[in-house]
Predict the 3D structure of the following.
Amino acid sequence: MCEDCGCGLPGENPVGISAGHQHEHEDKRGHSHGQEHAQEHEHAHGPGEHHGHGHDQSHSHPHAHAHAHLQAQPRAGEGTDLAAPGAEAAEARRTVEVRRAILEKNDRLAERNRGFFRARGLLVLNVLSAPGSGKTTFLRETVRGLGPQLKAGVLVGDLATDNDAKRLRESGAPVVQITTGTVCHLEAEMVGRAVKQLDLNGLELLFIENVGNLVCPAAYDLGEDLRVVLLSVTEGEDKPSKYPPLFQGADVVVISKVDLAGACGYNRDLALADLGRVAPRARVFETSARTGQGMEAWREFLVQQHGARKARDPLAL
Amino acid sequence: MESALSLALDQARQAGARQVHVIRLRIGALSGVAPEALEFAFAALAPGTPAENAQLAIEHVPARFWCAACVREFAADDLIAECPGCHRLSGEVRAGREMELASLEIE
């Protein structure tokens, strides 16, 4: 469920994670995840101090007293029942300053992922686009082309099916499918769980293929190093200015399916101008996964980025 | 909205509230959040919680960018960060990414 579109109302299909083995195993894993999940929740709520401190102290002091008087044990009443004993004192209507980022929890878990990835020396890319822009084929061909030069793994998110995972496995890379049920984007917590299903030994690169969606995934940091947005030539040259938040956050923009440019009357100058306005700092690659055009430059970029990562963190595994 | 609501209910509980009257959110122009969508999700999620009769008050935070060349901040309404002084594009966001639970009115 995200802030943007109201997807994934509670009680609907839970998130599934599949490394593509037997179902029995998956089920058992699912259970153990549930437990980890619970722990993470507590972590996030209880000692939210790491990030919370600054905030809490800076703003809630004038109000903190009121809290203390009204309820001595704020965390005592678990669950949703707010009618705690001694609530008579709380009769008066009053304002409580909170000033907390709504996605603070996701951001915290994303930072945890980031630390984990860094320690493993993994370069992590969050790959986003509209449905049908060619993320899966692009990644399959990227991994295929890299071969043993850079060993890559893939996490792929979809609402349902493991079709994309199957297609990605054709590249020979280890792949974990995340099925989000009704949720329209990946969250840091899902990535943190799914990555445990990957054999990370020897992996240097991790691609996270996000759910196809140009809106909601923009708000969710997964702990990646680079955000890659795909835009196919069939989608219209002005897509970046129609969906600015996603493109503004892009480190890299890949214009895909350039082999179809002629067939769909794609205007390259217009597209690059639009992109330049919305995402002036993004690196742009123009590619066709089918013909291989532009793929070499993209792979060289990955090798160079991974090298830079290694130089920055020489002690990583 | 689920995270916004659960954060709000959490805070309300900690403050000893029985009922939440107003939930005030600050939503930046660059956050990607559509206020209408928030309201829709809120209507779906709030029933059965102490916030079911609460009003959702959304404060819009306009986007502001920094131009290093002109050493100034500027507002950009159409989300394109072109400095009105030098017409250069800026990637440095100063405000507008907010998605914040600002305050609660409780009882």
User: Anything to note?
Assistant: The CA atoms of residues 110 and 223 of chain A lie 4 Å apart. Chain A touches chain B through 56 residues (CB under 8 Å). Residues 22-87 of chain A have pLDDT under 50 and may be disordered.
